[in-house]
Design a protein that fits this description.
Porin, eight-stranded antiparallel β-barrel, rod-shaped, 2 domains, mainly beta, Jelly Rolls, five-stranded antiparallel beta sheet
């Protein structure tokens, strides 16, 4: 089982070479809730409303496009079934049988999640569906106890035995809320339902009235169903950038008239030590366009300047969730936008989203820059 889990984890990590905009997370999770109803053979016993289950897990997941993820993990869980003797309940005011029908088991799981971003915030709603395999080591326990209340003339003994299966499996749907904050780390709060698909354990009970000598029996079986709350923290370990095909651009190629010699500008000097990487090329039908720029991921203090054809059109701007709009005039031919990073923020690299609207079509582009390379967009306009 551990070998299969390792293979699954390595496969998820390997997907980073196939997809862009990925993040690798490792984290821990605390789980607490109540067991679902168990099946009883007769009316002698009944399960109390509160039969606890607790657990802890460690996990690894790959998040892709900030839209969905694949994950795998391992954890240990504890649970206890609490029962009531119906006769005792009638005679002794909700008497609860203190049967140590408790179990520890290992849990191995894999899951796929989908995320919905709430507007342009760092908050998300998510849905998850997982497959869990639980191992009980195929053990059994047995015990005997005596209960007596002299004032009520009650004297009874209970014998019970529980046999656990070697393993069972469950389907686990989950919904919840998550918040992405410092350096892309994530806090999750969720509600899940463990739907056991095979038997986890079976118990048999014999209750003997030592006054009358009468014995009665009952049995219980469970698939390990449970409703639980989860609190989880994920640490962003790695960020995989989209692999761009780098193309070096000479600044003199930006000008329309390459035969015209001009004095070097301040912008030329600033960008001379940085590689310009063309991230995208688009065509527009109008010379006047509306350019919107914003931080489409976690707002982490990125500061940028934006250049068009060798001139700054936006300087020392701190990217926000809200779009910043600019109306610009394009020349005929190739127009070059350069995203110049002034810092790297809390999360590298410096990333910005652009929308170029020519009145007929909206083009969305993602540009990434660091202190050595500047993301570049080429816009072709023809009258």
């Amino acid at each position: 089982m551990l070998k299969k889990l390792l293979i699954l984890s390595l496969f998820a990590i390997h997907l980073q070479s196939l997809f862009a905009q990925q993040e690798l997370y490792v984290g821990g999770e605390f789980i607490g809730g109540v067991l679902g109803g168990s099946e009883l053979k007769s009316n002698l016993l009944k399960q109390r409303n509160y039969s606890p289950t607790l657990g802890g897990q460690i996990n690894v997941h790959v998040r892709m496009f900030d839209l969905f993820s694949l994950e795998a993990g391992i954890g240990q869980h504890w649970s206890r079934v609490r029962l009531i003797d119906n006769d005792f309940e009638d005679q002794a005011e909700d008497f609860s049988i203190k049967i140590k029908n408790s179990s520890y088991h290992w849990n191995y799981y894999a899951a796929v999640s989908a995320y919905y971003r709430i507007k342009n915030s760092n908050s998300y709603l998510y849905g998850k569906f997982g497959l869990s395999i639980n191992t009980y080591e195929e053990s059994s326990v047995s015990d005997a106890s005596n209960f007596s209340i002299s004032s009520l003339n009650i004297d009874r003994s209970i014998e019970y035995s529980t046999t656990y299966e070697h393993s069972n499996y469950s389907f686990i749907p989950e919904i919840g809320y998550q918040y992405k904050f410092y350096k892309g780390n994530i806090l999750n709060i969720g509600l899940r339902y463990n739907m056991g698909q095979s038997k986890a354990f079976e118990s048999n009970y014999t209750i003997t009235d030592n006054v009358s000598g009468e014995s009665r029996t009952d049995g219980l079986s469970s698939n390990g169903d449970a409703i639980t709350f989860t609190v989880r923290y994920d640490f962003r370990l790695l960020h995989f950038n989209k692999k761009e095909r780098a193309k070096k651009i000479k600044l003199d190629e930006i000008a329309i008239d390459v035969s015209k010699k001009e004095e070097p500008t301040a912008a030329d000097t600033i960008l001379s030590d940085r590689e310009l990487v063309v991230s995208d090329r688009i065509k527009v039908k109008n010379s006047q366009v509306i350019v919107s720029i914003w931080d489409h991921q976690t707002v982490d203090g990125d500061r940028v300047s934006l250049m068009l054809n060798g001139k700054w059109i936006l300087e020392n701007y701190k990217l926000k969730k809200e779009k910043h709009l600019m109306k610009v005039e394009l020349k005929e031919g190739i127009n070059t936008f350069v995203l110049h990073a002034l810092n790297l923020g809390e999360i590298e690299p410096n990333t910005a989203a652009l929308i170029v609207d020519d009145g007929e079509k909206r083009h969305k582009i993602i540009l990434q820059s660091n202190m050595k390379r500047s993301g570049t967009l080429q816009i072709k306009y023809k009258k």
